[in-house]
TrEMBL record:
InterPro entries: NAD(P)-bd_dom_sf, SDR_fam. PANTHER family: NAD(P)-BINDING ROSSMANN-FOLD SUPERFAMILY PROTEIN, RETINOL DEHYDROGENASE. Belongs to the short-chain dehydrogenases/reductases (SDR) family. Coiled coil: none annotated. The keyword Oxidoreductase applies. Keywords: Oxidoreductase. Pfam families: adh_short. This is Short-chain dehydrogenase. GO terms for molecular function: oxidoreductase activity.
Length: 333
């Protein structure tokens, strides 16, 4: 597989060109809309078996039919996964492990953004619970399959966590991640959950790279998708997303461009055996000194998001939270 230079405008299909993923087993969460669909399309085009996981089976079936048609790959499967329910995550993991398949690449892409205060079935604040805790539990459950893939393939297994420039809005409050003792703010909550996605990549790599599992976090760029469903017109204006005529401001990527860094993180030869990084525009990101600098340049990451000590603290907290909330041994084999 050759390695080429890509940039912010590259599309997922451009990035996958020349890669052959025949025999690879891949899961993409949140593959019922937006970036997840185009990520899965590119990976399917390269011949992988791709499991599309999301909560709406009707949407998933339509996406699967479309992907089969456009890629000529019939190894597209759909599986129900509700990341706001640890029971559903557990059921998904059990079904996957029962197939005795390895798992080469897991793309934790699903997400919610800026929603009003609400909670997952297990009582976690919705953005922290869905974007981080759901994916944390899913990944832990799938570790046996990720390990098996690393043992049986010359390449390491990869876990890709979708994050956002929005991580610069907030670090994780390790004492109160669920906003029990502080006022809820939908953007602080989104920022916290997206920082958690990066810290998760850091800790996962530190703890599991010795077993062949590496994880990076990907900021896809700004893309108009269903993710903005909770933003009112006024909020989009206030945050500078649209102009006064309601048009999205320049700088947004197409969905095909938005999926390119996830695909790059999944297949790039230069990333083999590398983890704990924040990737954007099909490349490495720059460490910024403040969230002001990051927002000015619309790029880069903050140091708290890659802090190894805090990454381990979040890991331990997340373990405690899923142990307390879900009495199962599955995640702790
Ligand atoms: N778009 C952007 O500008 C942007 C920028 C930075 C980062 N990101 C990140 O990119 C990722 C993909 O976002 P997108 O823009 O493609 O958004 P999207 O079109 O809204 O897709 C999100 C996906 O996640 C699924 N999902 C949401 N809650 C779920 C749950 N509880 N259980 C299972 N699946 C769930 C959605 O399913 P439903 O269709 O059923 O809702 C959908 O398939 C997210 O992690 C987001 O934070 C996006």
């Amino acid at each position: 597989m050759s390695s080429k230079q890509f940039n912010a405008k590259s599309t997922a299909m451009e990035v996958i060109e020349g890669h052959n993923l025949t025999g690879y087993e891949i899961i993409v969460t949140g593959a019922s809309s937006g970036i997840g669909v185009e990520t899965a399309r590119a990976l399917a085009k390269a011949g992988a078996r791709v499991v599309l996981a999301a909560r709406d089976m009707n949407k998933l079936k339509q996406v699967a039919d479309d992907l089969k048609k456009t890629t000529g790959n019939n190894k597209i499967e759909i599986e129900k996964l509700e990341l706001d329910s640890l029971e559903s995550v557990n059921e998904f993991v059990k079904r996957y492990l029962a197939k005795n398949r390895p798992l080469n690449i897991l793309i934790n892409n699903a997400g919610v953004m800026g929603c009003p205060l609400s909670h997952t079935k297990d009582g976690f604040e919705l953005q922290f619970g869905t974007n981080h805790i759901g994916h944390f539990a899913l990944t832990l459950g799938l570790i046996p399959a990720l390990k098996r893939a690393a043992e049986s393939n010359s390449r390491k297994s990869r876990v890709i966590n979708l994050t956002s420039l929005g991580h610069t809005l907030s670090d994780v409050d390790l004492k109160d991640p669920n906003f029990k003792n502080r006022a809820y703010d939908p953007w602080i909550s989104y920022g916290q959950s997206k920082t958690a996605n990066i810290l998760f990549s850091v800790a996962l790599t530190n703890l599991y790279s010795c077993q062949g599992i590496f994880s990076n976090a990907v900021h896809p760029g700004g893309i108009v998708t269903d993710l903005q469903r909770h933003m009112s017109h006024e909020e989009k204006l206030r945050l500078g997303v649209i102009d006064k005529d309601g048009n999205y401001k320049p700088g947004f990527k197409t969905i095909e461009q938005g999926a390119s860094t996830s695909v790059w993180a999944a297949v790039a030869v230069e990333l083999e055996g590398k983890g704990g990084m924040y990737l954007e525009n099909c490349g490495y990101s720059k460490l910024q000194g403040s969230n002001f600098e990051a927002f000015q340049s619309q790029s880069g990451h903050l140091s708290y998001a890659i802090d190894e000590k805090r990454a381990l603290e979040l890991w331990n907290l997340s373990l405690e939270l899923i142990k307390i909330k879900y009495n199962s041994n599955l995640f702790f084999d």
